[in-house]
Recover the amino acids of this structure.
C-alpha cells in the first residue's frame, strides 16, 4: 500500500450516492474532522485519479504514477463494472466535500477476498482510510457474508499497517516482500447504508 494506501488487489462498485450522502460528506465528526462519503466513480473523476496516484502515493505500490490515458480507462472500467451483477470487485471513491481524495477496493475475484486502498498524499494522517476500511468491512462481513478478508502493504509504509491493525486486521507475516494481514467475521457491525448500493435494512 502506498502511504497510506492499502495494497492487496483489483476493482468495481455499487450505486451512486444520493443527495443525503453528499450532504453527509461535508459534516464534521465528533472530533471535528470532516466525514468522508464512499461513492462510485464517474468518467469525470479521471483528473482526480491522477492526483491520487501521484509519484508520492505510488512509491510503495510497485508501479509508477497514473497517466491521463490510464486514469480515463480506470474510471470508465469502474463505471462499467458497477452495472454488472454479481460484482467481482467493488471500487469506491473517498469523497470529501465533493473532492475525490482516495480509492478503496474490495476484490471478490481472489481465492480469498482482498481489500486495498490508496489516498492522495495531501490528505494523509487524517483518519480517512480508517473510516473507509471500516465501512468496506461492514459490507464484506454484512451484506456479502464473507468469512475472511486479506490485505497487504509494503514494509516501508508502516502507516498502512497501523490502519489495518486499528480496523481489526491481524498480522499474518510476510509474502513476496509485503507485510500481510487478515481479518475474519468478528468485526463490529456498522450500517451498510454508508456504502453505495446497500441501504439500511437490506442486509
Amino acid at each position: 500500500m502506498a502511504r497510506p494506501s492499502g495494497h492487496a488487489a483489483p476493482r468495481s462498485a455499487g450505486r451512486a450516492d444520493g443527495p443525503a450522502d453528499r450532504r453527509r460528506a461535508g459534516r464534521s465528526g465528533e472530533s471535528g474532522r470532516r466525514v468522508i462519503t464512499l461513492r462510485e466513480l464517474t468518467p469525470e473523476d479521471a483528473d482526480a485519479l491522477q492526483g491520487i496516484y501521484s509519484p508520492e502515493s505510488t512509491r510503495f505500490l510497485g508501479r509508477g504514477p497514473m497517466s491521463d490515458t490510464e486514469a480515463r480507462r480506470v474510471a470508465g472500467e469502474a463505471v462499467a463494472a458497477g452495472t454488472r451483477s454479481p460484482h467481482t470487485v467493488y471500487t469506491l471513491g473517498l469523497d470529501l466535500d465533493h473532492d475525490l481524495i482516495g480509492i478503496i477496493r474490495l476484490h471478490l475475484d481472489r481465492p480469498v477476498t482482498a481489500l486495498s486502498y490508496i489516498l492522495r498524499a495531501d490528505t494523509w494522517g487524517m483518519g480517512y482510510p480508517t473510516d473507509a476500511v471500516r465501512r468496506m468491512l461492514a459490507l464484506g462481513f454484512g451484506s456479502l457474508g464473507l468469512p475472511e478478508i486479506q490485505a497487504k502493504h509494503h514494509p516501508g509504509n508502516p502507516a498502512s499497517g497501523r490502519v489495518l491493525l486499528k480496523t481489526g486486521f491481524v498480522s499474518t507475516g510476510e509474502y513476496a516482500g509485503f507485510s500481510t494481514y487478515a481479518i475474519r467475521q468478528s468485526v463490529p457491525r456498522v450500517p451498510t447504508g454508508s456504502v453505495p448500493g446497500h441501504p439500511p435494512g437490506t442486509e
